[in-house]
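Comment thread on ticket #2218

A.B. wrote:
> Attaching the input chain for the structure job we discussed in standup.
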Amino acid sequence: MSGTPNMQQLRVSGLRKSYDEREVVAGIDIEVRGGECYGLLGPNGAGKTTTLKLCLGLSEPDSGEITMLGLPVPARAREARARVGIVPQVDNLDPDFTVRENLLVYGRYFGLSRAEIDARIPDLLEFAGLAARAESRIQALSGGMKRRLTLARALVNDPDLIFLDEPTTGLDPQARHLIWSRLRQLLNQGKTIFLTTHFMDEAERLCHRLAIMDHGRIIAEGAPRALIERHIEPQVVEVYGEGAERWAAEFGARAAERCERTGETLFCC
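C.D. wrote:
> Ran it. Output below, let me know if you need it in another format.
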């Protein structure tokens, strides 16, 4: 059963988590509604993956409240996770099994019968574009194929809510677009998605709403287009190369109101 539109699927309030006296998640609030894609956008180290682990009950929060699919987490996290699909940041497919066997074994973890899983596998393979690779070993798959299989595996229990941790990191542009296409299919089916990403274009393409996270805090939240209009200038010029700094010193002040340097690139707006 997919999440009912606008019905709350995940609620996080005042969530905090520290490691070695460093606060990784610093009092954040999140609400994910049924049928939407909610994104957590931020650089590496912002606290995105830790937030997902806390929401799933895989890590104990220092303080705050989490309710997932109407159940308190971590108190009833195991029960809630039975209705959740998870795509981790790093693929953890079993290399000793074939594509089909990976789906079969994972389905058994949810208590599904062999007959139930066998009935679902053809649709999952079709969804992943792997119908012709059912008997292939994992080592024979490309990175994009592995990622699509990991996504299909997360659907074996027909979850209400799907967590994706940086689903396209490390993929080439074609593979990224294929994953985006599959995620849009899930949204069209009424599924609810909570994803983390550090790609702004990915967040803009997929998310109905997103939160920008940095140093454990949410610094902005809203629809992607609204955030762009509110916080980003309509035009940005990138200047890069050996002469970028010299150009900025000579012409930057006249060409733009503001210039910021990231690595070897100047962003002028």
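A.B. wrote:
> Thanks. Noting for the ticket: The CA atoms of residues 13 and 65 lie 5 Å apart.
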